[in-house]
Write a structure and sequence with these properties.
By secondary structure, this protein is α/β, with parallel strands linked by helices. The chain has eleven helices and 15 strands. The chain binds NADP nicotinamide-adenine-dinucleotide phosphate and ligand G4F.
């Protein structure tokens, strides 16, 4: 039986990857941070299962990582832990650098300190944010990087240190350059989940209006459940290589919004430009017709924004046999809205409290 160690196991990808690897017969070990609340929503259904184990460690604390790596002695490490929110990286650039840049180095050094560099394969969660202020479209493994946020700059260090250890120490370590991937487990302050939750709340009378930032921003959105398979495939390859993982299809934040509201039973028409743009209800429940349900707020603009991400997954298709078209954009939006319609219906008024908190967090009002 193979043993895998996952950092970031409580996150969106960590939870799906745990399920995927357990389905493949792996013994799965996850790293969790000490926190004042002991509720881990995304992995609650896995806790207590015979091949799922949790260990306390923190990517900011080298010794804690060395101890876990030495105890578990994994065949594969998936380094998914990160401060993963781009906007937050402008507010907490030093913390982001410590976890997303130096944290990667700590994982690599832990493997060397435990003398596992010849047996343990390492996957690094890299990102399309490295292309940042894009220099070509679509982006592939040869496209120049131009990071455009503190998050992306930190992740660029992670990418290069993985490459360096591969060449300097002949380690099997690789980066998956993953484009945005979403799901019903996505954090509530990322734009897709913010939209699907708002569409559900507005249609159920629990929210008046959704405030967003740049509606023109373009993303290549895939389904997280499909993407975790690629992380595993990258480590099963004959040689260590980096791969772009994307759908090859691009949509704007505005398109995502229109489709999400459509699935919630509301048709929107957008009018105006920039900060004055509004999404108005033209069809839907009686009380909503003619109302502005989506508006733009400067609070959600970024000092520098990445606006044109579009991935080319040709290499992953050819070398890993990965099918990027498993879940379409339309299906993804529907999965998320259906989930959030049911969630909001069951949470009722509590959903409104969560909405306010998520909005305050994103605006930086609650630190
Ligand atoms: P996520 O839901 O935000 O999960 C992040 C995970 O990292 C959580 O488990 C979090 O633990 C953990 N973490 C944060 N700081 C830590 C620290 N100091 N020590 C240990 N653990 C720490 O992110 P995701 O969407 O699953 O993404 C997974 C990885 O892929 C991240 O590295 C992200 O940057 C990268 N990525 C994501 C996407 C995407 O579209 N989702 C695309 C490209 C790359 P807590 O639960 O304790 O906070
Ligand atoms: O959903 P987002 O916050 O995701 P972003 O910045 O693309 O980052 C995510 O994907 C990266 C892969 O490319 C990962 F590396 C990273 O960890 C994370 O998972 O924002 C998407 C776009 C941005 O252009 C943003 O400016 O949506 C725009 N946007 C417009 N209004 C908004 C909002 N983003 C957020 N979060 N909230 C808004 O109200």
């Amino acid at each position: 039986m193979k043993t895998a160690l996952i950092t970031g196991v409580t996150g969106q990808d960590g939870s799906y990857l745990s399920e995927f690897l357990m389905g493949k017969g792996y013994d799965v070990h996850g790293i969790i941070r000490r926190s004042s609340v002991d509720f881990r929503e995304r992995i609650a259904h896995l806790e207590g299962k015979p091949h799922f184990h949790l260990h306390y460690a923190d990517l900011g604390d080298s010794m804690s990582i060395v101890k876990v790596v030495d105890k578990v002695r994994p065949d594969e490490i998936y380094n998914l832990a990160a401060q993963s929110h781009v906007q937050v990286s402008f507010d907490s650039p030093e913390f982001t650098a410590d976890v997303d840049a130096t944290g990667v180095l700590r994982v690599l050094e832990a493997v060397r300190a435990c003398h596992l560099e010849k047996t343990c394969r390492i996957y690094q969660a890299s990102t399309s944010e490295l292309y940042g202020k894009v220099e070509e479209v679509p982006q592939n493994e040869n496209t120049p990087f131009h990071p455009y946020s503190p998050y992306a700059v930190a992740k660029l260090y992670g990418f290069w240190i993985v490459k360096e250890y591969r060449e300097a120490y002949d380690m099997f370590c690789c980066s998956g350059i993953l484009f945005n991937h979403e799901s019903e487990r996505r954090g509530e302050t990322f734009v897709t989940r913010k939209i699907t939750l708002a569409a559900a709340r507005i249609s159920q009378g629990l929210q008046d209006c959704l405030y967003l930032g740049n509606l023109d921003s373009l993303r290549d959105w895939g389904y997280a459940k499909d993407y975790v398979e690629c992380m595993w495939l990258i480590l099963q390859n004959d040689k260590p290589e980096d791969f772009v993982i994307a759908t090859g299809v691009q949509h704007s934040v505005r398109e995502f919004t229109k489709l999400a509201f459509h699935h919630a039973g509301i048709e929107l028409e957008f009018e105006g430009k920039g900060i004055d743009e509004k999404g108005i209800c033209v069809k839907g429940p009686d009380g909503l017709i003619g109302k502005t349900l989506v508006a733009v707020s400067k609070d959600f603009y970024r000092p520098t924004d990445v606006v044109n991400l579009w991935g080319d997954p040709t290499k992953a298709k050819a070398k890993l046999g990965w099918n990027p078209a498993r879940t379409s954009f339309e299906e993804l939006v529907k999965i998320m809205v259906d989930h959030d319609m049911a969630k909001v219906a069951s949470e009722g008024a509590a959903a409104k409290v969560r909405m306010n908190l998520a909005e305050y967090l994103e605006k930086g009002i609650v630190k």
